[in-house]
Amino acid sequence: MDDRSAILATVRDYWDGWFAGDAERMTGALHPDLVKRGAAIDGTLGKLTGVMTADDMTRWTREGEGIATRPVDTTYEVTVDDVYDQIATVTVRSAIYREYLHLVKTQDGWRILNALYTNVS
Fold first, then answer.
1. How far apart are the C-alpha atoms of 38 and 98, rounded to whole Å?
2. What Pfam families does UniProt report for this protein, alphabetically (predicted)?
């Protein structure tokens, strides 16, 4: 599998795993050092939500947080914006979120290291 295909598969595991409550898929998509933040949509520029970790995301996935927030429209678009050596940047667009992801290539494959998202209003 080439890098772009592997990156897309990782992002699908992250995204689909969240909304399916599949903690195994989520864990496989995330780097153990993941840092995820959300930008507020309340008009407060620069306001960020707290830091989320790989452990948080896996636990919440297992507890069904993604299932509880699953939108009616579950379609999403993934754009691999850039791949350079062992790093990549990806944009995910959906009816519920916009996410910017940074991935790193590890011995176990591509993993999401950083994530910044906001809710789509």
1. 10
2. Lumazine_bd_2
Distance CA 16, CA 10 (A): 10
pLDDT at res. 41: 64
By the 8 A CB rule, do 2 and 78 touch? no
**At the top level of CATH, which class does the domain 3-119 belong to?**
alpha beta
User: pLDDT at position 71, please?
Assistant: 84
Percentage of the chain with pLDDT > 70? Answer: 93
Residues in the chain: 121
Q: Where are the domains of the chain?
A: 3-119
Long-range pairs, 59-68, Cβ under 8 A, ≥24: 59/23, 61/17, 61/18, 61/21, 61/22, 61/23, 61/26, 62/21, 62/23, 64/21, 65/18, 66/17, 66/18, 66/19, 66/20, 66/21, 67/19, 67/20, 67/21
Residue type, 36: K
- Residue 74: both structure tokens together: 């579950």
